[in-house]
Write a structure and sequence with these properties.
Pfam families: HisG (PF01634)
Subunit structure: Heteromultimer composed of HisG and HisZ subunits.
Family: Belongs to the ATP phosphoribosyltransferase family. Short subfamily.
Mean pLDDT: 96
Largest sheet: 6 strands, mixed
Radius of gyration: 19 Å
Low-confidence stretches: none
Protein name: ATP phosphoribosyltransferase
CATH architecture of the largest domain: 3-Layer(aba) Sandwich
CATH class of the largest domain: Alpha Beta
Structural class: alpha/beta
Enzyme class: transferase
CATH topology of the largest domain: D-Maltodextrin-Binding Protein, domain 2
Shape: elongated
Number of strands: 11
Bound molecules: 1-O-pyrophosphono-5-O-phosphono-alpha-D-ribofuranose
């Protein structure tokens, strides 16, 4: 049996848009829609297999070559690094990295070393290094908005999509850092060894994206 081409999809935030994109490309995603608790799903009538994983693990599986292709947020790529080709900006999952803090607080006032909470410690460190600013960074796993409210940090570096979470928790954006969105990534060896199968798939996605732009 020929080895399937494995595509790792990020569960949660990006899942719905990714499945919709594959359906618009003409792939039968019934198995994914009816997945239950299964984590590896076939795409009927193709040699493709979908692997559902957490964002950071999508990057790890593609980096290590156990998945050939991945769909993951630029936020995760920026935080984790990794060696793979980033071949396309898929245009969904759009949000921004931002520095945010409690309303009414001036981040730059005073001389104390600021404490920053983030799930994205490398992104936060890079941001402050570019400013030549010495900060102390504390890693938080989720709902990072809690950290300044509870008094653990002065500010947070996090992704902002609609801004609702900040607003509903009394926080405001002090500075936008950069835009992020979902990206298509490909394992370096896979692209060489399975070029005949992977390149047409990338081309199909690129054509689809070009069509979306002109709509
Ligand atoms: C992200 C992010 C914010 C929120 C922003 O968290 O960390 O908390 O979404 O979205 P909004 O601007 O539309 O309100 P996510 O829901 O991914 O969960 P997490 O806190 O567990 O990381």
């Amino acid at each position: 049996m020929i080895k399937p081409i494995r595509i790792a999809l990020t569960k949660g935030r990006l899942e719905k848009d990714t499945v919709e994109m594959f359906e618009r490309l003409g792939y039968d995603c019934t198995a994914i829609r009816e997945k239950g608790r299964r984590l590896i799903l076939p795409v009927a009538g193709t040699n493709l297999e979908i692997v559902l994983a957490k964002a950071a693990d999508v990057a790890t599986y593609v980096d290590n070559g156990v998945c050939d292709i991945g769909v993951v947020g630029k936020d995760t790529i920026m935080e984790m690094g990794g060696t793979f080709y980033e071949v396309a900006d898929l245009g969904f999952g759009k949000c921004r990295f931002a520095l945010a803090l409690p309303q009414g607080v001036d981040f730059y006032e005073g001389y104390h070393t600021r404490r920053i909470a983030s799930k994205y410690v490398n992104v936060a460190r890079g941001f402050f290094e570019r400013k030549n600013m010495d900060v102390s960074i504390v890693k938080i796993e989720g709902s990072v908005e809690l950290a300044p409210i509870l008094g653990l940090s002065d500010a947070i570096v996090d992704i902002v999509e609609t801004g609702t979470t900040l607003r509903e928790n009394g926080l405001v954006v002090a500075e936008y850092i950069c835009d992020v969105s979902a990206r298509l990534i490909v394992n370096i060896a896979s692209l060489k060894l399975r070029k005949a199968e992977i390149e047409p798939l990338i081309a199909r996605i690129e054509d689809y994206l070009a069509g979306e732009e002109t709509e």
